Amino acid sequence: xxxxxxxxxxxxxxxxxxxxxxxxxxxxxxxxxxxxxxxxxxxxxxxxxxxxxxxxxxxxxxxxxxxxxxxxxxxxxxxxxxxxxxxxxxxxxxxxxxxxxxxxxxxxxxxxxxxxxxxxxxxxxxxxxxxxxxxxxxxxxxxxxxxxxxxxxxxxxxxxxxxxxxxxxxxxxxxxxxxxxxxxxxxxxxxxxxxxxxxxxxxxxxxxxxxxxxxxxxxxxxxxxxxxxxxxxxxxxxxxxxxxxxxxxxxxxxxxxxxxxxxxxxxxxxxxxxxxxxxxxxxxxxxxxxxxxxxxxxxxxxxxxxxxxx
Length: 310
What we know:
alpha/beta, Four Helix Bundle (Hemerythrin (Met), subunit A), Rossmann fold, 2 domains, eight-stranded mixed beta sheet, 12 helices, 14% strand
């Protein structure tokens, strides 16, 4: 069983390798020279850390180099890590489960972000923690989404409430809450339709889902989490901004980080929107959805061999 840090390290290996390749392995060098700082800047931009974060790391490296011409590669990695920790302060999101009612987690986002599979993976993780989970297939816009979620829940031994394609998504959500309550479930995870965030009918549908849930519990959904594709990099910032403005988000889940060299994108998203990050997705297996931890993320990206204890 891989440790949490190793999951992060392997999942972010493309980003770490991209940084190392662009810099000619700068973090492994025994000694630096002035030209390597330009290489570092290029690598950080390529990893999609964004302008402000990249410039902070580069400027602090320049200051350190002026003070110490014997600066080593690992020193630069530590400078980068320190900047990221500072930028990401407050970015860890934690789900606080209700004791007296089902905790409702609503996953939203565009098609292709990995939202439906993330719904099942999150359900599996909650179940592994001893929670009683029900999953709701409220993406009734696509028949494939309903079937996909059914397959996943069958594989992971999760209970599901679903409707037919074209059914009223809000009605499915309403029924799912009733089922969760009557079956003694403490966690309800809702997969919603994934059309483009620019479509007003999707926003209307999401708002209706919220309204019907609040007929059962005026505080629901307790968490509205946007699932974003990490490989889109900083392009996902505008997507997240629109969803946040139109619907209101509690945080993010960033997926597909194992297949991209743009692992710095979540830094830019957090810096821009200040939305906490709850989970990161590193692959296709249920266990590849991992709770986001600043230390493990930072250390994995910069190749620092440290693990944070759970």
